[in-house]
Amino acid sequence: xxxxxxxxxxxxxxxxxxxxxxxxxxxxxxxxxxxxxxxxxxxxxxxxxxxxxxxxxxxxxxxxxxxxxxxxxxxxxxxxxxxxxxxxxxxxxxxxxxxxxxxxxxxxxxxxxxxxxxxxxxxxxxxxxxxxxxxxxxxxxxxxxxxxxxxxxxxxxxxxxxxxxxxxxxxxxxxxxxxxxxxxxxxxxxxxxxxxxxxxxxxxxxxxxxxxxxxxxxxxxxxxxxxxxxxxxxxxxxxxxxxxxxxxxxxxxxxxxxxxxxxxxxxxxxxxxxxxxxxxxxxxxxxxxxxxxxxxxxxxxxxxxxxxxxxxxxxxxxxxxxxxxxxxxxxxxxxxxxxxxxxxxxxxxxxxxxxxxxx
Length: 359
What we know:
There is one protein chain. This protein has helices spanning 10-34, 37-60, 63-90, 92-122, 129-147, 149-161, 168-198, 205-224, 228-258, 264-268, 274-292, 296-299, 321-334, 337-347, 353-358. It has one domain. α4 (92-122) packs antiparallel against α5. The radius of gyration is 21 Å and the shape is globular. The relative contact order is 0.18. It contains 15 helices and no strands. The protein is mainly α and 359 residues long.
């Protein structure tokens, strides 16, 4: 009935996959009271950008991936950056919401991918558990977006900006429907697990502990902060650091299996070179910060403005300078991450044998 398996091993999973959500929660709740928006944005940059470097290392550093995905790696970044910059000039809040949703979907898929690895390593679950897990992630994430006070303020304001009339009753109905769907799916998911156990399929409790800790952190932060930046930092701590860990071990195992020790990437992920691996990611963040220079608002060249009037029907006042800065800072922090999200949509396919070998 019970079989355990780990993404890396017991010790590393305890630190990076089970302990990290608790640290992210504590840091997020602390930062909203003790740190300014500028300080939080700076911390977010130092957490976020090293894992962008790791993505580029994973994507452009392996010759077989470059050969398979050359067109996507050249054309995709040009299209994404062009569309995003154009959207920020004419509909900044809309494009920010799109970026937030895409980012959340990406994090959702990373959570789902890790649950698949937990089942793969422990040899647990029936043939359909992957689809059930994916649906569970979607339901939990959409409920957080629709029902939490943090994101309700954003989607309600954006709908009003597009001329869609909503009021407090509409928002309350959306919240109630979202929670009802979530509760109904939870019942169905538990029922599926019980049927699987009855049919002789084991479960991996580490997978469900990982999901429980991750979503507990996300929900608590979504309900107890009004700052998009604070939520972003909590998200980045889990997503970025866990991503760095999985890429390091993926590359290390991949090169060990291929007995390839000549490339510079193989030497970088060799046992004992973790400090160099981390240092290169930090250097990438430093270079970005130096190239950007100046204040965040200067980096936007004055083209992007988050200025929104009050909405009496929803008891929302005009957007404050603090909120506008946080949205602007989050958008600039997320922009390079769109390439990371785009690349990950096709380089990490667990069903492919090339990927399984590294995992």
